[in-house]
Amino acid sequence: MAGTGGADSRRAAARVVVFPLPFQGHISPMLQLAGALHARGLAVTVLHTEFNAPDPARHLEFDFVAVPDAIPETVAANGIAKILALNAAMEASGHVHGALASLMASASAEREGEPRRLACLVIDSTLTATQKATAGLGLPTLVLHTGSAACFRLFRSYDMLHDKGYLPSTESNLDMPIEELPPLLVRDLFDPSKLPNKEIGQMILNLATETTTNSSGPLHKLIASTNGGDTSLLDQDHSCIEWLDSQAPGSVLFVSFGSVVHVTQDEFTEIAWGLANSGKPFLWVVRRGLVLGVEKQQLPDGFESAMEGRGKVIKWAPQQEVLAHPAVVGFWTHSGWNSTLESIYEGVPMLSRPVFGDQLATGRYVADTWKIDVLLDGVLERGEIEKAITRVMDENTGVEIRGRAKELKEKVRMCLESSGSSQQAVDKLVDHILSL
Ligand code: UDP
Q1: What torsion, rounded to 10 degrees, do the Cα atoms 200, 201, 202, 204 define?
Q2: Signal sequence span per UniProt (predicted)?
Q3: Which atom of ligand 1 is nearest to the CA of 314?
Q4: Residues 232, 316: contact at Cβ < 8 Å?
Q5: Which residue CA neighbors atom 24 of ligand 1 most closely?
Q6: CB 345 within 8 A of CB 328
Q7: Distance CA 384, CA 366 (A)
Q8: Which segment of 6-15, 17-26, 133-142 scores lowest on mean pLDDT?
């Protein structure tokens, strides 16, 4: 007991600063990690940009410090360019360095008279400017990589992929298996040379690998109370839960493509008709800006009557609650890592349509290694969509995939038990932070 008391007082004397990249898929896991550290007795300060700032009122357990981001309006609308602009602006302004220096100075004069040593900074892997900002401060930095370990390994293999001729990809090698990284095919690689601005693509790839990783496990369930609502940047429409209550158990497909990917107008139309023609009930998240270049997208003419009340379209869902609902039997996702973990945690098999970056490899792993996902690649077309929906949801064809999703769910839940591997990983991380 004496030993535990010693550890407790060391924890109470330590504070951690976390700095997420200001996008939904990055803010949520960082705040979940912060919650897990706080639950183990560490104090937490969230350093954040003004753009996409988290809501302090939903996290009374943390302190919040805003850093001016100074991103030019012209780049604010472009997701990838914004990451680079954010880094450049932070580096040029020196605001992060200043904020960290003043946090370190005030750490010893904590509120309520409790001095707390600033033990370390935890940053998102794409915020290299923040890592540089710590220079000369003597503040250790840890990095949270918000994608899967497998994708991190892939991103680190890009030199090899070029050396062996897999990249740059060509129309004829897209289906070539990458022998060194099964089960990936060339089409699953994020190929910066195919982006309109290859330099930006390459720089993002470098950012994601330049810093190091220190993360694994379903962070969103490491803290008992989380349901996703507290870290959501957009208002979640809870009316869909009532609608799900009125649906038969195991009957609904949930469709959501996360917070950043776009679809073209043609793809949007094909998705709508694929869903309507499938004959299955569905809950579809059409967030503002989902269709490229369209501010307020319109559902196709005749779609509402074709749905015959089987479908519900909303702007933003309480996704974790939806996936946990007994009416939901499948999830059409863009293979974002958070969405993938949330689906696995609830034992919901997926239909996936990855769009860019790590989503491509994640979709392949989930389909070919874990076999709990039907991968929809190639041109999006209503007939193919309908077939894929049937494969995931059908009483007969979906049996195996649903069985494997349930098995994986059990494994994940074991990792989260008090002596499970995810809990042990966080304990180790806390020990490491205290040793810094
Ligand atoms: N999300 C949500 N409501 C929605 C759609 C998504 O709360 O209607 C949440 C989802 O639970 C997940 C995050 O947004 O935690 C999306 O992260 P992910 O890594 O899957 O994708 P990204 O948005 O980064 O592409």
Answers
A1: 80
A2: none
A3: 8
A4: yes
A5: 25
A6: no
A7: 19
A8: 6-15
